Fold each of these.
Amino acid sequence: MKIVTIIGARPQFIKAIALSSRIAVTPGIEEFLVHTGQHYDANMSEVFFRDLGLRQPGARLDLGGGSHGQMTGRQLEAVENVILTERPDICLVYGDTNSTLAGALAASKLHVPVAHVEAGLRSFNRRMPEEINRVLTDHVSDWLFAPTQVAVDNLAAEGIASEKVHLTGDVMYDVARLILDDPSRSTNIACRLDLPEMGYAVTTLHRQENTDDPARLLAILEGLADVAETMPVVLPIHPRTRKITASHPEAMAALGRLTVIEPVGFFDMATLLSGARLALTDSGGLQKEAFFFRVPCVTLRDETEWVELVELGWNRLPEAITRDAIGAAVADALAAPPGLDASPYGSGEASRIILDALTA
Ligand code: UD1
């Protein structure tokens, strides 16, 4: 059996490692990795291959940048060519990026069955590019690997046949266990940044809905700068956010009050998070990783796909994305007792369950 796997953006390099390393030691299956090039900076891409030992891709398409239509269209054409050449039995895609949609669309039109890891997630906000990518990918997929029961229910509500849907747990938990089970893989990043133990916050910010609206971006950065009055706030800055703030003096002033660093690799980020008092993020992955390390989180968005963390009390959505509402959510997160213990993301065996289903 031959699987062509499409990856291209930072979270996909992380998500792919669990299943890819299992496939590598399973006789009778061959995986051909395709890197679309959506993320191309070394600290957004190569570092994850190096850190996590992900095999070098069989094809690099170098198709990052441009508008959504340009990026997705160019990737669609290039992935189609790879599929025609490689003639896989399955095309595997992860998450909700433009690379995910390009891969799913190219394969389904060539009648190559599509397997979607992280199926069924919904924000119910169609203004997010990721929501469009998720919905469309799910509806052309043949295997839908849902990380949570909420995701399974979302797919049922959209009329997707239940035989295609598998509740697997979350592959990101499989990956988090690399460090949870072996703390010696922690790095010295907190020391390098001179951070007080359990006395700092970690933040990430890159969603288009936050970065592309100047008033909203400023409200968030000022909210983060307020937190920085009481503890260091570390921001590994995403290229999108860096580019946009550079032309926005007030945003730059607020940014100047944070501990801004370049994007970091997987083990540095996991180490930073595991020692933090608080996480503030608009990333889906970081919301879950905060929970894996039992760090309270404030999500810098109007809604979240990971609703179980809000229900368990580990995650909070501000009442609105304003400076004051972010401050109120932070105060609440710091004052509240720890959230409830639960395992909504499975037992760290998601990649095994997925591989079993694909080879059944
Ligand atoms: C993409 C995904 C998002 C995911 C995120 C993780 C889509 C629609 N969005 O958003 O779901 O959460 O990745 O990071 O697919 N850039 C660089 N260097 C890089 C990568 C990007 O400078 O290595 C620049 C791009 O040229 C662009 C901007 O950053 O100007 C945004 O990159 P893009 O890939 O469009 O989207 P992300 O915001 O990263």
Amino acid sequence: MAYKDVYEGWKRDPEAFWMEAAQAIDWIEPPSKALFDDKAPIYEWFADAKVNACWNAVDRHVEAGRGSEIAIQHESPITHATKGITYAELQKRVASLAGALRMRGVEKGDRVIIYMPMIPEALEAMLACARLGAVHSVVFGGFAAHELAVRIDDCTPKAIIAASCGLEPNRVVHYKPLLDEAIELAEHKPEFCVIFQREQEVAKLIEGRDFNWHGFQYGVKPAECVPVEGNHPAYILYTSGTTGQPKGVVRHTAGHIVALQWTMKNIYNIEAGDRFWAASDVGWVVGHSYICYGPLLAGAMTIVFEGKPVGTPHPGVFWRVIQNNRVKSFFTAPTALRAIKREDPNGEWIKRYAKHELQAIFLAGERADPDTIQWAQKHFGVPVIDHWWQTETGWAIAANPLGIEELPIKLGSPSVPMPGYDVQVLDDAGHPVPAGELGAIAIKLPLPPGTLPTLWNAEERFRKSYLDTFPGYYETGDAGMIDEDGYLYIMARTDDVINVAGHRLSTGAMEEVLASHPDVAECAVIGASDALKGQTPLGFLILSAGVNRDHAEIVKECVTLVRDQIGPVAAFKLAVVVDRLPKTRSGKILRGTMVSIADSKPYKMPATIDDPAVLDEIKVALQTIGYAKD
Ligand code: COA
Ligand code: AMP
């Protein structure tokens, strides 16, 4: 079948489409129907089924006689570890950890925070929660204690599972002090913590609260898979919104596994026994869907990579991992390829390694620029597929579905909508715009299985953030267009979310931190264009009256404050002191215009600007930090 037939087939009968996709899952009690719309516009999928995600990702492959195949391959160019874990071993390890968690009181529905680096134990912790029906919430290691504390208070975990440390190329990330500080800061206190002690750093445990990963499991009865309802939350994953309070994206179990299983064959062309690698982090949605659950549901091998595209130790490390593991489909962020391209423009490192069965490179997380795609096409000779999705959707909204049909690639476009997504471009009044015209990208409700049904403990915020602007649609927060052939183009965010090195960050959250500096009266943060990272945050500070300290000192303190409060991942390194910010007469800061000035791009003088002279002041200030060059 061609893509068009599959997409039209879904449109004609979505219920039949998803019930058929559901057949690839082992159900304890099968669903009576796919869509549950009695609470519309809040929709649920396969709600009356009983199922277990861990069974489907692990145990059923062992039952099928594939226990000796590698499930997880750990590759750490930082520690030089390379080790495979078979499905049978994984089953044992996960059942044992789940048994220990249960012995300490973790049950179905309890939340467990996981704060771990890229080691197989992070996946084991996720799967152990899934085994018990506990709801995991993984927190990215690049976030600081305050961000962890915010998440602890929001999802009130019974337990936290962490590692003693993470390893960045230039430093050891001391997880344990960050964890201790976060628990100290949070109002909610977990009952206990489980610490995986890495040999690079043995953390000091707090008697009575912290347990050693291994000792904790000693002599416990392994846990079996606990049946959960189809609409039972599998996990909560926090993502950046417009404010400092992150959004807790909820993923329901049945829709999550049905959708991911469908994507593995149809988008990535991956089946049992194949080898798949998503070079992301378990702390992001890509890590949830395509390092942990997706490849394991398919019975494929997944790679857990602890390293960077460059500098660990060289720009050929990705290709070495692909060669040594005979990777079939590879998934990374455009920024990673840009980093490699910068160090290896002629692909000398690429030539050193065999590609074996590499069939395609998938890109997501940010817009894939044509130069980078062409560079990869030239050096790999395989399709380089941009696909577009969000933490909220959990899987691709638009892609080039390699497992169905390889569609012609159009540079700058993540191709076409996937079944389940009726994507439309709307004007401000919510009317569809003609092909080729820019507008807000929205998806007709209901969203397909695997997408967010709501935000954790925040249904009102869910409605306000996503459903209220265009009734009957989900508002993606992205702007763009659809061309005559139905190809989508994602151009920009419509909110204050920026994308730095494939990481989604909130300028609003950074502004909240800057505003807490005692000398700062007012501030703004924008995302300026960056050749490597896509965007980079720039801060503007207006100082309180009477402050006459050295500006460089204040900027330095602000940079440190953001790093300490949000984390190194915010990559907030540049700020300038200004007297005024450009605003509309109603007081709205003209961030879009500031971005154009920073990027030296032409802009239209906003009709509502209060005082146009401020723009010149902003330009001069930006020039002092290397931006707004003519
Ligand atoms: N734990 C702790 N700190 C982390 C971290 C983690 N898991 N991940 C990143 N950081 C830190 C980095 O060490 C860096 O700290 P520094 O300021 O002390 O140098 C900071 O956060 C910023 O990191 P990053 O923006 O990633 O920049 P970088 O210069 O270290 O690396 C790239 C640049 C392009 C190589 C890197 O960003 C990259 O590989 N990006 C791809 C991202 C990706 O795959 N995203 C998933 C979306 S699909
Ligand atoms: P995240 O939730 O971290 O996955 O970030 C989602 C956002 O990243 C989207 O809303 C887009 O703004 C951006 N994004 C992700 N993938 C793409 C892509 N392929 N092209 C353009 N933007 C993308």
